[in-house]
């Protein structure tokens, strides 16, 4: 079942889309919930879905050789996870685990790519916001590592 347009309008990722474009996007997204401790996806697995956190907090983990997993980030409301599913080789480059009860908006990336093929201007707006979000995350990680 798709989500309401008003829900998408809360997030910068969709802020430049007009009403028609928002309706097209809303048809692609669904709401899901996961319990604390649940692993949403694992590093190295095929990526088919992206997630926008609407409630709760998710930790991002990277495998570091024999040392195991290292926590590299915490993603809260409005954060996007699973972005690597949008680019080749379409696999997750981290593990996402719920730190709390988490609610997300999800979409199948193959459906999203098909929409973007039909509406390239939507793709440009979406990817610009996605890239800005990721750049902000990098800056925050740098600032936190300097503490």
Folded structure, characterized:
The chain is an alpha+beta fold. The chain has helices spanning 5-8, 19-26, 109-118, 120-145, and strands spanning 30-34, 39-41, 49-55, 58-63, 69-75, 80-81, 95-98, 102-108. The strands form two sheets. The chain has a four-stranded antiparallel sheet with strand order 1-8-3-6. Strands 2-7-4-5 form a four-stranded antiparallel sheet, with no helix packed on it. The protein is globular. Helix 3 crosses helix 4. It has one domain (5-145): Sandwich (Jelly Rolls), CATH 2.60.120.10. It contains four helices and eight strands.
The CATH first-level class comes to: Mainly Beta
How many structural domains can be distinguished in the coordinates?
1
- DSSP strand content: 25-35%
Helix fraction by DSSP (H/I, runs of at least 4): 25-40%
**Largest sheet, if any?**
4 strands, antiparallel
Structural class: alpha+beta
Question: How many DSSP E strands?
Answer: 8
Counting DSSP H or I runs of 4 or more residues, the number of helices is: 4
Quick overview:
This protein is α+β, with helices and mostly antiparallel strands and 147 residues long. The chain is 33% helix and 28% strand.
């Amino acid at each position: 079942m798709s989500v309401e347009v008003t829900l998408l309008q809360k997030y910068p990722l969709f802020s430049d889309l007009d009403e028609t474009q928002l309706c097209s996007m809303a048809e692609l997204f669904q709401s899901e919930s996961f319990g604390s401790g649940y692993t949403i996806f694992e590093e190295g697995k095929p990526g088919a879905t992206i997630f926008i956190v609407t409630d709760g907090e998710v930790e991002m983990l990277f495998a570091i050789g024999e040392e195991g997993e290292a926590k590299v980030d915490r993603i809260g409301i409005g954060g996007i996870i699973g972005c690597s599913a949008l680019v080749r080789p379409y696999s997750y480059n981290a593990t996402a685990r719920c730190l709390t009860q988490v609610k997300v908006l999800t979409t199948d990336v193959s459906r999203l790519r098909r929409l973007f093929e039909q509406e390239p201007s939507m793709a440009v707006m979406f990817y610009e916001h996605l890239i800005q979000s990721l750049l902000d995350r990098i800056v925050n990680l740098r600032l936190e590592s300097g503490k």
